[in-house]
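Checklist before submission:
- one chain only
- standard amino acids only
- sequence pasted in full

Submission:
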Amino acid sequence: MCGRLLDKNRYNLLKNYIIDIHKIRPQAFITWMDIVWIGGLNPFLRRFQFFRASYVMKSNAASIFRSPGAAFDVVALASSAGGLDALSEVLSHLPADFPGAIVIVQHLDRRHRSLMADILDRRTPLVVQEATEGDHLHSGTVYIAPPDRHLLVNPDGTLSLSQSELVHFVRPSADLLFESLAASYQDRAIAIVLTGTGSDGVMGVQAISKMHGTVIAQDEATSKFFGMPSAAIQTGCVDFILSLEEIAPAILTLMKEENL
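Returned file contents:
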């Protein structure tokens, strides 16, 4: 069955996320429905009622990132071991006028500065940059989580970075990226799990599916490491299992609103 309840650790992560966002940007738009969907209607959600009055802010609809004429607004990719080659393959086949924004979590060595944004920027027509706190999403732009920071997508079309605890022993976490994307963009989000070890992304793909977004996983034959894609597939929440070469064409097809 696709879906998993919120455990105490995830409750604490979400609580800290709400507090962090409010401190950084007091006008951050975090709705009660966002929290309900992320939490999976778990009894722990009752504790979030404390935050409802303090942290739910009015949104400025004009500031929310949307992709006019496209079926989806944001595409999120997650990868670990073997991820650089996989990401290069996908991004190199997306055009400069790609209508949505792209966000990426790649597990990186937290002890060193990452050159991934520079490398990928040379391999794709898209603009590639390392994400910074408060970035506004733009079409045709790729935002990569920096080492040792969780990357989160907010409903107002901005990005947040967090150094809250590790999730599945990693930071940045695909789970937190996908969960924040599910809450913020609901059925206009695509989540893609590429090659990698471990099970990061399992909770996140369930959140995306629950909000009627679309989930893609790389197949075993083209994955250098099948741990992450396999774990996502086992949730029953993956809509498409594709070879690496099929993923970019699939993204472009899904983005075309008239084909849905």
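Reviewer check: The longest strand covers residues 74-79.
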